[in-house]
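Q: what sequence does this backbone want?
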């Protein structure tokens, strides 16, 4: 596996881990009766602040991951992997790993800055693919 593709695998594992943790927290807060249901109605049990933040952080990752994977695949398929692109991919993974506790713990405004670093890393991949 190439170093650039390794970053997609690691980002995917981070995504799965984030999903498992957020799902576990939601299950504890709302109960398995709700979390295993078709969710035709809102839960009658509120979630803790941290659980809500973890669920929103996961939703944000759902939105970000396709951008990252597309950028990495574009670099790989066009054989444009360089130190800059591999570095940008690692910056993305690091930023996304930091984003989780930043969101969960309410690090304001740092969470937004961390998100911006991850997005800039993805933009770097797309820009590099055009050069």
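A:
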């Amino acid at each position: 596996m190439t170093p650039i593709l390794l970053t997609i695998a690691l980002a995917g594992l981070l995504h799965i881990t984030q999903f498992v943790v957020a799902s576990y927290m939601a299950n504890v807060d709302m109960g398995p009766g709700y979390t295993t249901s078709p969710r035709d109605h809102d839960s009658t049990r509120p979630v803790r602040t941290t659980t809500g933040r973890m669920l929103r952080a996961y939703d944000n990752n759902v939105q970000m991951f396709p951008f990252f994977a597309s950028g990495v695949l574009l670099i790989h398929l066009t054989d444009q992997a360089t130190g800059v692109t591999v570095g940008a991919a690692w910056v993305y993974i690091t930023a996304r790993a930091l984003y989780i506790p930043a969101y969960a713990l309410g690090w304001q405004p740092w969470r937004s800055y961390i998100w911006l670093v991850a997005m800039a890393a993805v933009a770097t991949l797309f820009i590099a693919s055009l050069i």
